[in-house]
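Lecture 7 notes. Example A: sequence first, then its structure tokens.
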Amino acid sequence: MMKFLLPALLALLLLSCQSARYGDEFPKGCYPHDLIVEVDSKSMVLKWQKKCSRAISGYNIYISETPLAAKYAKMQLPDHIKPLNFEPFPGDINPDDGIEVYQAEGLKDGLKYYVTVRILMPDGRESRPSNEIMAVCGGRGEIELSVRYKSDQDGFSFIKNSFVRADDEQNDFYYYFKNGKDYIASPHNLNGFLKKNSLQLLSFKGEPSEIKARIKEIKPNSDTDRLSVSAGNWIRLYTAEGASALIKVLGFSGDGNNRKIRIYYAYLPLKDEMWF
């Protein structure tokens, strides 16, 4: 009789241990809230709200190439799924503002990542996950370009995320000033053997944070390899490799050969996709 009872008792014990590790046993609302992700080349910054009044050991950061939140919403993650952080993240250096900030480095540009955060308790249990965000690393920032051939910073490569010469084979666009007008152009205009990227002037205005919600409004039209631009313009650049970038003209300075253009850019190194 005992030999039949033992397996059943062991199964009940294992089930009990497993259920004790489910995230839904945490106090109500005790998990990371309102996660947002800001990407850059090979890195991202995670921000979330702390709303748990219990003592915690820290946070585990999950950046996966497959979604995790829905499948493991109410249970401990399997042992083979490891957090990005080797040690629990204790929180940032400003514990009183209610916002935690984590910098993730060493990622790959052009990969779809699924990002979540969980609270880790002193007994080793994890909370339910935060909201899950899909994010793709790619260069973001502000740069200033000189008129073509007038400095070493007259072209920019999205793949390298750095300045290049306007006639470099990896250049993605350059700037010139002619007859009182400012232009952004594809390198193909300089040399037929260089990259032939296309440009599209967008109809909307606003800040980068506002444009993200309007990406779906962008429809393909008669793209060109050069555009006359003004401060405040948004441009979609479609690269020869099939990737996309958004460019905002922030302003201009100087005259003649000393004239420069200042822009904000966001690069999405995914072929034939348009979202940021």
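Example B, a different protein, same format:
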Amino acid sequence: MTPSCEDVLFVGALTLDSLYRVDDFSRGPGKYIAREKLDTASGMASNAATAAARLGGRPALWASVGDDAAAPALIGEIVAEGVDCRHVRRVSGGRSATATIVVDATGERWVLVDYDPRTQAVPSADELPPVHFYAAVMADVRWPGAAKMALEAARHVGRPAILDADVAPEDVLTLLAASATHIVASAPAAEILTGETSPGAAARRLCARHGCFACVTDGGAGAFWTGPDTGEIRHVVPPRVEVVDTNGAGDVFHGAFAQALAEGRSPETALRFASAAAALKCTVVGGRLGAPNRQRTLELMKASYGE
């Protein structure tokens, strides 16, 4: 596959997720009976790439897996979504990442992840994909060495270098934020980076500190953003939907945002597109399995924002 001028390179996690649906997970320690169990390829960057593909893009993924039995199936699932996985590496003696997720009846979730340090070790320079072939790069925080390398390469060739900033050690977040042209952070990650509990204040501080576009997402409260040329905090309210599973919604948001930027959309239009896609994902159980197509996303975007 030859990259086009609208392709996005996603960098970061590819995991095996085991998702359990439990009606009530509020009783504390004890035994719970699951209503449903799903096993699927997942991970922040992989989910985002899947979302971009379903929204009409031709994304590529740079991730790292082990040489275990799970790896071929994980890669195969993402390839089946239309994602170019030629850059996914397999590490001899490493194990592929896994996650166990519990989703309750309200759609809230608990996530326990396991990453092998050997598999997630810093790649060599010759492993870096040809970043100049892509319209944008989006990196998550789960493979920091690769993320920094890819974000810096994107900046060097004048492409958007988008950081999906989720909860991680402060030193990792600080390292990667300094390499980004666009920071899209969850509210908890933004608080780690800035100390601000207000999403708007956190976005303002990130923008001032790094001189770049900054957005902080706060679930159902929406996205708060600003940029060096904006001078004010703006707010995108998410569409109202019936929520059944929030797992993966942030990843879908990031994938849709990156795809829209790669297509030349303005940041505000990209955020509205991303908000519509993430909202639709929340109506379906199963992380990336709920990523919507372009038509449904555009329809909800028009109904919610008039565009």
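Note on Example B: The chain has a mean pLDDT of 94. The first strand starts at residue 8 and ends at 12.
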